[in-house]
Amino acid sequence: MNADRTLSPILNRPLKLAVLISGGGTTLTNFLEKEAAGELKIEIPLVIASRPDCGGVDKAKAAGLRCEVICRRDYKNMNDFSEAIFHLCRSAEVDLVALAGWLSLIHIPDDFQYKVMNIHPALIPAFCGKGYYGHKVHEAVVERGVKVSGCTVHFADNEYDHGPIIGQSAVPVKGTDTPDQVAANVFQSECELYPRMIRLFAAGKIKIIDRRVVIEEQVNHL
Fold first, then answer.
1. What CATH code would you report for 119-152+169-221?
2. Binding site feature residues
3. Which of 1, 63, 101, 185 has the most C-beta neighbours closer than 10 Å?
């Protein structure tokens, strides 16, 4: 990865987004709702699901989106699995890949470095990494008794929840909150944070400086 670079030119058209899902497709639905409301200038030429029975497949098809299923078990190794995914992304000529509840580790090729975003339902580096996904994150948050959780959007690399952090949003956790309540509050925050980070990418405002993400407004004050 290059040390210092602007990641995306300013686009004079909707951002072409590939959305990767493993579950119910709630983040995909949020993207579609934001697009319909004029709050997110995107096209979604491709949805990829990691299994055929996840609820997001039906949601994608109901929205008239192309949805392909690529299962890890159908490939000999992670490299072949990853190449199948990014071959489709290249064919669809997407500008950005959004992991939206995607659970499988993938290898990101050079031409997609800093072009794959993920959202994690906690404040990285807390409650992240292998084994921390979905409801397990919120169960761990409640069990530990932390007072603040939230969500993190970051560029994905070849480790779980490890790439450069783009943005975070904090959510208070009350001592009486259940994991379900924490999950609901965090998801509300996700619904605003993820589209906002995608808008910054599309506007060409995200830079990498010394392997850290810096937003254009912040760069101007350095």
1. 3.40.50.170
2. 118
3. 101
